[in-house]
Amino acid sequence: MTFVIVVVFAQMAHGDDLAERVRSEFLFSWQAYEKYAWGHDELRPISQTPRDWYGESLMMTPVDSLDTLILMGFNDEADKARKLIDEKLSFDKDISVQNFEVTIRLLGGLLSAYEMTHDEQLLKLADDLGTRLLPVFNSPTGMPYRFVNLRTGKTSGSKSNPAEIGTLILEFGTLSRLTHKPVYSDKAKNALVQLYKRRSKIGLVGEEIDVDTGQWISRKSHVGGGIDSYYEYLLKCADLFGDRDCQSMWRSSIKAVNKYVADGDWYGEVDMDSGKLTKTEFGALHAFLPAVLALGGDVKRARRLEASCFKMWTLHGIEPEAIDYRTMAVTEAPYPLRPEIIESAYYLNHYTHDRQYVAMGGTFFDDLVKDCRTDDGYTTLKSVITKEKGDLMPSYFLAETLKYLYLLFSDDKKLRFVDVIFNTEAHPLLKTSSRSRR
After folding, report:
1. Rounded Cα–Cα distance for residues 21 and 71 (Å)
2. 106: buried, middle or exposed (CB in 10 Å: 19+, 13-18, 0-12)?
3. What global pTM score does this model have?
4. Residue 228: active-site member
5. What is the pLDDT of residue 432?
6. Catalytic residue among 232, 321, 367, 419
7. pLDDT, position 172
8. Can you tell me the distance from the alpha carbon of 337 to that of 322, in angstroms, rounded to the nearest whole number?
9. Which of 323, 286, 317 is nearest to 385 (CA)?
10. How far apart, in Å, do the first and last CA atoms of the chain sit?
11. How far is Cα 295 from Cα 83, in angstroms, rounded to an integer?
């Protein structure tokens, strides 16, 4: 089954004008990538040079961006990127890769693009990649190691975290569904369950765990980096596949998070055993949560938290990596072009139809253009206070940041929200229920 994608350009309202501006900035960024980094993982826009994650390209940007190219109607560019991927991408490489990042960016990107195009080579590549990633699950607990050699299957990295353990089921489950190979879904689901079983008595998970022993290394609990998408995937697994186990795990988990980790209109850091507040820090990665709360039906709490996120953004005209929400002081100053706050505005606009979220998106977009645009694409900021630029356009800027802005301003004209679940890299995957109706 394929997505229904409608591209409308006539008689544009304000939101559509913004969508066209985002579309233009995406093309500008994509052309800079084509000019200076074609076939490589990412572009360094200031130095006009390519960056490869592991010394050899896995085509992070082409794979990560392909469904965005299709959604935005850049058919020629999408065909060119797909031809590059079909003909040149190989995972038969003697390199050790991070399972989490490769899964959400490459596996997710290939699967989403396959569902949009029915290009069999994309599914073949996804199946090959999935097979090469499977050894990560061969730990005593069934929770995955962090790294695996794509050629030899050698694994490493037994000290992991809930995000890297629990953020695999959407991609591996979709791969199972499309290839009719249950092993992918079974391994990823078991990892999720094994992690959930090790939650504390009050229902929280910690920040770091040893997948060999199953023992917690760090008992800090929060909703930021290292934990964030574990909660996201519990809910999205339930919605994507109609999985009742995941639904139950989500309900008990979010109940514990809201009871112990929520701190007024923010979410802090607590001890996973006692629930005692240990740190009043919130950051750009935490800003995924309003979207997930809204998806889970708690729109009122999602609204309050997104308002907090917006305060974080407007402190310095663009959000820092982290703040102390009690003092509103910046604790980590960089801005690496993160999408989460925009993602949450997109979800809230969908559920509430409140135009404040489109206006909020306009602020995000204008600030990005003002502070992060270069002569050749967009780049990270070393500090939101000084606005000193870094030199990297991460693949997720095209896969997520600009995609969510475009969808926010498009008012669901480009993609039927109800038919898909977005993975944590913003790759839309068809719901089981949507697939059966087609």
Report:
1. 15
2. buried
3. 0.95
4. yes
5. 80
6. 321
7. 98
8. 14
9. 317
10. 7
11. 35
Distances (CA, A) of 12 to 17, 70, 351, 388: 6, 20, 22, 35
**CA–CA distance, 268 with 316 (Å, rounded to integer):** 21
Note the pLDDT tens digit of each residue in 189-206: 999 999 999 999 999 999
The answer to whether 358 and 22 are in contact (CB under 8 A) is no
Beta-ladder partners of 208: 218
Q: Do the beta carbons of residue 265 and residue 305 sit within 8 Å?
A: yes
What residues in the chain have per-residue pLDDT under 50?
Answer: 1-2, 4-13, 437-438
State the Cα torsion 355-360-364-367 to the nearest 10°: 110
Separation between Cα atoms, residue 199 and residue 192, nearest integer Å: 11
Residue identified by tokens 């962090």 is 146
225, 163 in Cβ contact below 8 A? yes
- Classify residue 315 by burial, with Cβ atoms within 10 Å: 0-12, 13-18, 19+: middle
Residues listed for the chain: 438
Which pLDDT value is given to residue 182? 98
Q: What is the enclosing helix (H) or strand (E) of 131?
A: helix 120-133
Helices 75-88, 14-37: crossing angle, 10 deg rounding: 40
Beta-carbon count within 10 A of 14 CB: 12
How crowded is residue 162: how many other Cβ atoms within 10 Å of its Cβ? Answer: 26
Q: Which two tokens stand for residue 361?
A: 């998106």
Q: Cα separation of 424 and 97, whole Å?
A: 18
Closest among 220, 101, 115 to 164, alpha carbons compared: 101
Q: Which residues pair with 148 in a beta bridge?
A: 97, 155
Cβ–Cβ < 8 Å for 67, 113: yes
Query: Which residue is catalytic, options 41, 42, 207, 228?
Result: 228
From 101, 119, 128, 371, the catalytic residue:
101
DSSP code, position 223:
S
Residue 411 catalytic? no
The residues, any chain, with a CB within 8 Å of residue 72's CB and separated by 6 or more, are: 23, 26, 27, 406, 414
Which one from 340, 400, 419, 425 is the annotated catalytic residue?
340
Give percent of the chain above pLDDT 70: 95
Please, what's the b/e burial string for 119-128 (b: 16 or more CB within 10 A of its CB; e: otherwise)? Answer: bebbbebbbb
